[in-house]
Specification:
Blueprint lengths: L4 E7 L3 E6 L6 E2 L13 E2 L9 H14 L8 E4 L11 H9 L5 E5 L7 H8 L3 E5 L5 H8 L7 H14 L3 E7 L8 H14 L3 E5 L15 H13 L4 E4 L13 H9 L4 E2 H11 L3 H10 L2 E6 L2 E6 L8
Parallel strand pairs: 2-5, 3-4, 5-6, 6-7, 7-8, 8-9, 9-10
Antiparallel strand pairs: 1-2, 11-13, 12-13
This protein binds iron/sulfur cluster (SF4).
Iron/sulfur cluster (SF4) binds next to loops.
Organism: Lentimicrobium saccharophilum
Protein name: Wyosine [tRNA(Phe)-imidazoG37] synthetase, radical SAM superfamily
GO molecular function: 4 iron, 4 sulfur cluster binding; catalytic activity; metal ion binding
Length: about 325
């Protein structure tokens, strides 16, 4: 039971979170092409008993006991290098961890949400993140590379049922891969589906570390900007996860710092960038310099011009 508990680690989504690994390394129902912890070593879609939840609870409490007050986590996050709902004891574990008084988050790939026992186990969590990369069968097969018994329609139905009754904070996470699920038509279909789910936040991400398969190319800034706009048009509260912990809510008064920080979370329309420029006393030259240094990118889409923090290799606008 080594490496069962780690952190706290900082993240924009969860603040400070104490991580819990309730699954042996890389036991998963998917073998996502973009997986950043390597190819799945053991695939399964049936649930199993892995670790004793009481022993995990003890390890978490031991860790909490040695943390300073300032290190107290905002969440205990069940986020293993595999799929947490494969753990038959997940529901018991969530309840035990909640006895610490700290909210519990579970990050799931959603593949088992068609099972009532899995939905019940997640129901007592305070925060659940469900993976929703696509609703297209062929895209799902090539991106998520599911275990052979899984069916996309069942999973989508499971997500809908869960979202109807879950009372905690529900977020979705969509990982965009170039030329697979970053096309406008599939993003519109996905946004329709997410609109039915009504997540608190719909996160759009792109692989930022070397993926499991070399032919996987992260979606670029243009695709992310378009995806963001499509999600917004479906009234989804949307944020980007591109590897930078931007903070759209705090202003330093420095144009380039604030622009980089805000556009790490969402693209900014040109009018808003000009507004920030006026507020911080910056000039057009400052903006042009950032474009030419490659720190931000400019994207034209549907009669509007957007700016987004650069996260791929440096390039001119
Ligand atoms: S669901 Fe997560 S852990 Fe499993 S293969 Fe996909 S990215 Fe990796």
């Amino acid at each position: 039971m080594e490496h069962i508990v780690y952190g706290p680690v900082p993240s924009r989504r969860l603040g400070k979170s104490l991580g819990v690994n309730n699954i042996p390394h890389k036991v998963c129902s998917y073998s996502c092409a973009y997986c950043q912890v390597g190819k799945a070593v053991s695939m399964q879609a049936g649930r199993s008993v892995f670790y004793n939840p009481s022993e995990i609870e003890i390890k978490v409490k031991e860790r909490l006991a040695v943390l300073k007050l300032s290190e107290k986590p905002d969440y205990i996050a069940i986020v293993p290098d595999g799929e947490p709902t494969l753990d038959l004891n997940l529901g018991i574990l969530v309840k035990k961890l909640k006895s610490t008084g700290i909210p519990v988050a579970v990050i799931t790939n959603s593949s088992l949400l068609d099972r009532e026992d899995v939905r019940m186990d997640l129901m007592s969590a305070d925060y659940v993140s469900v993976k929703a990369d696509t609703i297209d069968y062929d895209q799902w097969r090539s991106i998520n590379r599911p275990y052979k018994t899984l069916e996309l329609e069942d999973i989508l139905t499971g997500i809908r049922i869960f979202s109807d009754s879950f009372k905690g904070k529900l977020v979705t996470e969509t990982m965009l891969v170039k030329h697979i699920n970053d096309q406008e038509n599939s993003l519109n279909s996905l946004a329709d589906f997410l609109g039915q789910i009504g997540p608190d936040i719909a996160y759009i991400a792109t692989p930022t570390r070397p993926p499991a398969f070399e032919n996987i190319i992260p979606a670029d800034e243009r695709a992310l900007t378009i995806a963001f706009e499509i999600f917004k048009r479906h009234h989804l509260n949307t944020e980007l996860l591109t590897g930078y912990e931007g903070n759209q809510f705090s202003s330093t008064g420095n144009f380039s710092t604030d622009l980089l920080s805000i556009t790490a979370v969402h693209p900014m329309r040109e009018e808003a960038v000009f507004g920030l420029m006026r507020k911080t006393g910056a000039s057009q030259d400052d903006l042009i310099q950032m474009l030419y240094s490659g720190s931000i990118r400019r994207v034209d889409f549907d009669d509007h011009r957007y700016y987004l923090r650069s996260f791929s290799k440096k390039s001119n606008p």
